[in-house]
Amino acid sequence: MAANPTPVLQLRQISKRFGAVQALSNVDFEVYPAEVVALVGDNGAGKSTLVKTIAGAYRPDSGQYIFEGREVTIHTPREATNLGVETVYQDLALCDNLDVVANLYLGREGVRVTGPHPLHLLSEVEMERKATDVLRELSVKIPNVRSQIATLSGGQRQSVAVARSVMWNSKVVLLDEPTAALGVEQTFQVKELIKRLRSRGLGVVVISHNLADVFEVANRVVVMRLGRRVATFDTSQSTAQEVVGAITGATLPAAVAAG
Amino acid sequence: MKQVTPHTRSDMPAVEKEALWPSIVRRFQQGNVGPLPVLIGLAMIALVFQIANDKFLTPVNLTNLTVQIASMGTISVGIVLVLLLGEVDLSVGAVSGLASAVMGVLSVKQGWPAGLAILAGIATGTLIGTLQGFWIAKFRVPSFVVSLAGLLAWQGALLYVLGTTGTVNLTDKTIIGIANSRVSIEAGFVIGIIAIVAYAAILIAEQRGRQAMNLPVQSTVMLAWRIGLIALVTVVTIGFMSINRNPNVEAAAVRGIPSAVVIFIAVLIIFDFITRRTRFGRYIYAVGGNVEAARRAGINVNGIRIAVFMLCSTLAACGGVLAASRLYASNQASGGGDTLLNAIAAAVIGGTSLFGGRGRVWSALLGALVIGAIANGMDLLAMSSAIKFMVTGTVLLIAVTLDASTRSRRENTGR
């Protein structure tokens, strides 16, 4: 959003090569606080590579990674997470056999310190209280926070994965195809959830193939093609046809320069 | 998809009690049938054998049964841990035999004091478990293969340690006393009452904590039921074991809880606590449920694996020490035969899934009771080992089928 001058996260001139394949060439990317950016493009356009670079899973060959105005170097996903950049991959990374509370806290359990590190006692009551509160704030409807993930619907699982990503003071959330496998009602719930993340001031990056969904939730659309960022649209001033044109390379609109 | 579960909506305000029936229904829908099938199975086994031979449900026989399963059950607790990870350990039988041989040889042939010999036996297990766990975690060799190699290698080590004599008859009073002494009736009841009070205190404190945090709590009736049931089982068991078991009424009375049983129950309580209440326990379930998710959550997956295999072999060694103590000897057959299969079968029959991530430590007790009851009952009826093996095999097949079918039901209800 133009009103806020500093992006929470900015990439400059990022390039990444896998052997003979130039996956990303001199890509600029930025997301502002309280903004939803959709990242679209055909298969192999470089969306996933870009998201994995942001998430810390890939190291770029060249380019700058700027977080809240400071240049940083990210070597591992953990470093990105520590900055406040959370990623929800398509597989959601939830443990089916554990309940909602355990999954929200996985790897960051609340404990009462007793004895050696691994034998710390879990603070179940505190975790359940905070989990219940966070889910309520996000209006995520789960029948019971003690339900195993295995018993939840796809939309509920997606919601749990997204809720987990915002529990830890994160500033940027990356969502990879969040509505890909969902039904109509569940897709609606997840879109509402994405809007709520924006109203909490987070920068949200969504990879999606569904342009109808993109136009409903995103403020801007960044189009990738063959490893380059080829166009950027303001969803309030453009149409799906223009975006499709940019994805396929049929038309290159004037909006490219807008950034 | 509409969520209509009014009793358990998380966005309901204030303190709300979860009704008994919906919580049971929810568990069943989650494929969490719990110990119910095993308990029904146990009751049926008891009924059949009691009808066939009225000596089955006598204090002396039931107490013998619990002593017979203590070693198998202890080994099985370790198996539950590795099954929770989605792995398996086929070396537990051989490790238990080797541990008993190390203890026996050090005590009898080398004249080590009992305490040191026992510790050396158990430490042998710990060392082996660490080695196998390291191999599995670092070199990505399936646990099935590593522990199969271990099964052979440790059996060889057992023969090597025993040397040409082949059998070591244990003479040390302390070592024999591990499995063959009894807790006095008074001490038994004191321990039992302390356990019941501690259990009630933990549940009530938890209830208070939840109330203070405005979380839904169990109904008081349900709470009372849980405490009452545990208290009843504890008191009846101790009472049963306090009846004189010596058929010769003139001679000194034999009564009180067998020490082997006390050790086994202590192992169960400790490991139940570790798996359900600590961070380490949570990570075991997480790794067994979804390794990739666990890794991305920053869990040291290899560390968890090594620790679990170490604990499994350590428990196997403890089981070996118990068995040797009960039988007054360690020999070339120690930990051989059906030791391994019984330990794995007990865990699975008790309700621990072969597919990882689901199960409880207590399933080791329930499964060991089933297997022990079948063996014991058939011995009373003077049936041959042939029939015993076939019946145990059938029960195991039923248990695994139950596991597989609840698993597929779970997968169908999810989403």
Protein model, in words:
The complex is a heterodimer of chains A (259) and B (415). With 259 residues, chain A is of the alpha/beta class. Chain A has a domain of 174 residues: 3-Layer(aba) Sandwich (Rossmann fold). In chain A, 31% of the residues lie in helices and 26% in strands. Chain A has eight helices and twelve strands. In chain A, strands 6-9-10-3-11-12 form a six-stranded mixed β-sheet, sandwiched between helices. Chain A has a four-stranded antiparallel β-sheet with strand order 2-1-4-5, with helices on one face. In chain A, helix 6 links the parallel strand 9 and strand 10. In chain A, helix 5 runs parallel beside helix 6. Chain A is globular, with a radius of gyration of 19 Å. Chain A starts with 8 loop residues before the first strand and ends in an 11-residue tail after the last helix. The C terminus of chain A is likely disordered. With 415 residues, chain B is mainly alpha-helical. Chain B has two domains: 303 residues, ABC transporter involved in vitamin B12 uptake, BtuC, CATH 1.10.3470; 71 residues, no CATH class. In chain B, the strands form three sheets. Chain B has a two-stranded parallel ribbon. In chain B, helix 4 crosses helix 13. The longest helix of chain B has 29 residues. The radius of gyration of chain B is 22 Å and the shape is globular. The N terminus of chain B is likely disordered. At the A-B interface, strand 8, helix 4 and helix 5 of A face helix 8, helix 11, helix 12 and helix 16 of B.
